Amino acid sequence: MARALEPLIVGRVIREVIDTFSLSVKMTVIYNSNKPVCNGHEFFPSAVTTKPKVEVDGGDMRTFYTLVMTDPDVPGPRLEGAFALYHRLVTDIPGTTNVSFGREVVSYENPRPNIGIHRFVFVLFKQKRRQAVAASPSCIKAAIRDG
Predict the structure, then answer these.
(1) Cα separation of 99 and 90, whole Å?
(2) Per-residue confidence at 141, pLDDT binned at 50, 70, 90?
(3) Segments in 11-94 forming alpha helices (H)
(4) What 3-state DSSP class applies to 99?
(5) Average pLDDT over residues 44-70
(6) Which of 8, 26, 42, 64 is the most exposed place for a label (fewest CB within 10 A)?
(7) At residue 130, does pLDDT exceed 50?
(8) Is the peptide bond before 72 cis (omega within 30 degrees of 0)?
(9) Which family does the record assign (predicted)?
(10) Rounded to whole angstroms, what are the CA distances from 65 to 17, 76, 81, 95, 136?
């Protein structure tokens, strides 16, 4: 499993965006091409204009997850250790399903600006229980703007 984290270390995702972690379930991200995205894949902005399909493989239907998609490379002020821009936030995703079965708190946002290189980071958090995350999109966006 440590080998699966190597691209995240090389790509500076671990330490700059998230701390080291242990993999517990598999997550698959698929954009328009119907081909799973792997760590380090590069896409033109035009290829990521529609929200990707995200599948959770592992756990069970009684285990719930939260998906956070962020862009740590968006230009602008940010707090130390804070996500720079949320591109998507989905809670209450049952294990062994896809994100469409969860509660979309922040809808998918296209990458901005659409030039330069950006690392899109998809992080899946295991929830202690269903509806454990209670955040409104306005609170999240305000916190990001204030940062």
Answers:
(1) 7
(2) very low
(3) 13-16
(4) helix
(5) 84
(6) 42
(7) yes
(8) no
(9) Belongs to the phosphatidylethanolamine-binding protein family.
(10) 19, 29, 22, 7, 17
